[in-house]
Amino acid sequence: MDRQLAPVRALLTDGSIVEVRELGPGDVTTLLDLHQSLPTEDKYLRFFSTSPRQLEDFVQRMVSPDEPQHVVLGALREGRLLGAASYVVTDDPESAEVALVVSHAEQAHGVGTLLLEHLASLARGRGVRRFTAEVLTMNFRMLRVFTDMGLVWTVVPDGDVVHVDLGLEPCERYLDAVAEREAKADVASLTHVLRPGSIAVVGASRSPDSVGHAVLRNLVDGNFTGDLYAVNPHASSVAHVDCYSSVTALPETPELAVLCVPAKAVPGVAEECGRRGVRALVVISSGVDAEELMKPVRAHGMRLVGPNCLGVSTSSPAVRMNATFAAHDTLAGDIGLVTQSGGVAIAVQEELRRLGLGLSGLVSTGDKLDISSNDLLMWWKKDPETRVVALYLESFGNPRKFSRLARELAQDKPVIAIRAASSEAGQRAAASHTASTATPSVTRDALFRQAGVITVDGVPELVDVVLALRQPVPGGRSVAVLSNAGGLGVLAADACVRNGLRMAELSPATTDLLRRLLPAVASTHNPVDTTAVVDEETFARCLDVVGADPAVGAVITVTVPTALGDPTGGVHRLTGKPVLAVRTGQTERLADDVPCYAEPARAAAALARLADRAEWLDRPQEFTRAGDADLQTAQGVVARNQEGWLPPDEVVRLLKAFGLPVLGGTLTTTEEHAVAAQRAYDGPVAMKAVADDLLHKSKGGGVVLGVDGEASVAEVFRAFQDRFGDRLRGVFVQPMAAGERELLVGVVTDDKFGPLVVTGLGGVETDLIDDRAAALAPLSTADADDLMRGYRAAGAVLAETDEAAVRDVLLRVADLAAALPEITELDINPLVVTSTGCVVVDARVRVAPARPTDPFLRQLRRTT
Fold this sequence. Notes:
CATH topology of the largest domain: Aminopeptidase
Strand order of the largest sheet: 1-2-3-4-5-6-8-7
Strand content: 15-25%
CATH architecture of the largest domain: 3-Layer(aba) Sandwich
Number of helices: 27
Number of strands: 40
CATH class of the largest domain: Alpha Beta
Distance between the termini: 21 Å
Radius of gyration: 32 Å
């Protein structure tokens, strides 16, 4: 393994950026200077001495290539070493002694914790499972760092010294602690982008039809509260803002610079900004060389939005910043919007404007070389002015971190995503049934669904859901339709059913009250037809009666104006239940902030999204792991078979290590061996050929069932020899398994998204019926239940089978895939299920070398 890892950028708690990298022989002088610069007290706490002996020799050993058991990471800012964390592997290869040193001036900024996180991640990838340390009892700062890590640790006092043992397994408590530290640092850094005290527009042209002029004009017209500067060497002022010849010539250092210069000039201007001390850049220009731009961004620790973007805006009264070239100013509101497409940003903004709704903030990420949706999820979670978050993403940089962030955010604030088209053209020819299911759109939709993200397919649908989210979520999926136009009420009822809602059965008390209010010809059963003659007051009273029925979770009203009147004015909010109105014409907002849609189908679709959110919020979010897994045995299987499809006996060994109910069998290589295996099972057996390139055994003629007796076994064995010739590696002999149903359970692993668990109809039905459900590992119990019930035939299957047993298999398979990244594909087919349990009859597993990855490690986006 290459000892020197690529440097990464990461944030400290104050929002400043450091480079974290492995230190080597060239860093001896810098590392020695760091140690020697420590005050006397810090030296004593680090070395138990105020004058550590042979310090130079100690430092040289730490970074020597001749000491492979020594590993040192450093945090540097513009070339200056702020701190270093190191470990030395002990006699036990899974244990290492850890040490930490941080410049005294930097000890309050989270340098130590950041370094230990990266060191622990690096150590885990190299087989180290725990850190040990000896710390003076008076060294409260160091003990606090260990506590704050969130890892499981034990301490043993021994006089003036505490012996610390720190487990490196990334438990939920640890991931939560890392996420909280990352959010704090990210919010601090994004303050320079979304709450800047000063802005310079570089490339502010006098031409009204230029991007630079439009950005500056929007900032002026929006009454930006901070200091505003323009950079244009050919003008004295633009839009009544004084111009300066360069960033260097500005009277003060701007906190944020918006670059609207030609693409070739962008890297040079970014370098000038970095030298001047600018904290963040928004690069509007397109066609920019990414690597050349990132050089000054990295070197000077700046945050970057873009390039190739619309810009950023915030409606906060404290800032009032519109640093975009959109045609209209952003209305103040409570919706946070992040989008890769400037066109989508403008379309959403205009639709919301028409309805009197606005944005709390807009970030157009463009090519997102640095700031991405993950950053904004952390920002908006902490932002009290944001109530709803909307996303348009064309790609994911770190989907596993996105899933965790979105899941946490969605608990408090609804998250809506417009699904971008996912091309399946690049999907490889899949070798397993599971892999054929794992298209980009299936994987993306599984991520959104599990994270509680509401998905829509366009801007109008996004706005429909945003309107609906101004109502409370329903207490269930039951709906009542109240209409003064019977036909439209029926259409609304049909639309509800199509969208997975159900029509509520109104109680006799409700229908009796409605009969007293309405004409005799009215229909008092759901959908309720009030007839065209009712007035606003009567319609409002009917709405109260229907809404009070315990069987009703939500109400959709449908009204049309007639010559006798228009009851729309009687539509109002209900306490604790959503009301969505329909009035043919145009989507709008009624009084009392009731959303009103142009047609019943749109109202029903929006209400269905509210019901989905309500169900997701009610789900238990706990992740449980099988405590009886034999990870050592499973890792041994992977170590012995580094690449390719595992032999059947190794598959059995692997699955049994995770407690899966495997039928098992005997891998035979001779006719006599096969006969002996059948005799031992004392009954009919299944015989399966194990041959090169034979993956779908049934299709390839490699399976014979119900073989009984020595002669029959010998005959089948010889038939396999004739059919597969030199490709035959053996014959797997299994006892026959009987059950009511056969399922497919599988895994395919994506480098970015991680393992995708798939289930559906198994056996011969797998190839005949494309009916499967998918979810990303790890699975919560609720995720497993959704997966178990997510395919079309699930209702019929589960009515005849042991749900608890199927759920247990899904959770164990997900645990197996999460624990062993070397597993690239896994197919259990069939999983034979009965009313009292289930058994794995056949399975295939493919493995490949896996590079250790840590999707939750704190680091800024990498670019090449």
